[in-house]
Design a protein that fits this description.
With about 160 residues, the chain is mainly α. The chain is built from six helices and three strands.
Length: about 160
Amino acid sequence: MSIDPLDLAFGDMEYEFAVTRKMLSRVPDDCFDWRPHDKSWTMGQLACHVVDLLWWGVITLEEDGIDMSQPWPKTEASTQAELMAKYEGNEKQLREVLDRTTMGTLEEPWTLSYGEQVFFTEPKWVVFRRFVISHVVHHRAQLSVYLRMNDVPLPGSYGPSADEN
């Protein structure tokens, strides 16, 4: 049996899309401005950042890097409906990019910079795993804490949650 390297690298994306969609769908309209601490993002900002990370996936696979000194599109939403519409659009776009991604694409270098300052240059596959997939999982977990602190029943991520059991 032969394993497709792209399936091996990104075969979990379907699962991660589904879990992320479920978590974002639990953000209540009346909690978008809630934050656990003055130094923390609001729930809305955090949820929008999760949505933006799918855009980062597109940029990682389609561009040779990003210069953080330049403006880039940031998701803004103040309701669950707006948030989910933006998520669905970014997920659709990332799916289309993943469908045309090749092993050659994944081996290309990608650079994160701020003007002349280069933070790193890594192969696209490393950037995608670390700064897209792992980053989504990290902030989705933060979002689950925000939701729990607001007594919102949590969906399961890697098995049933206490609310689903």
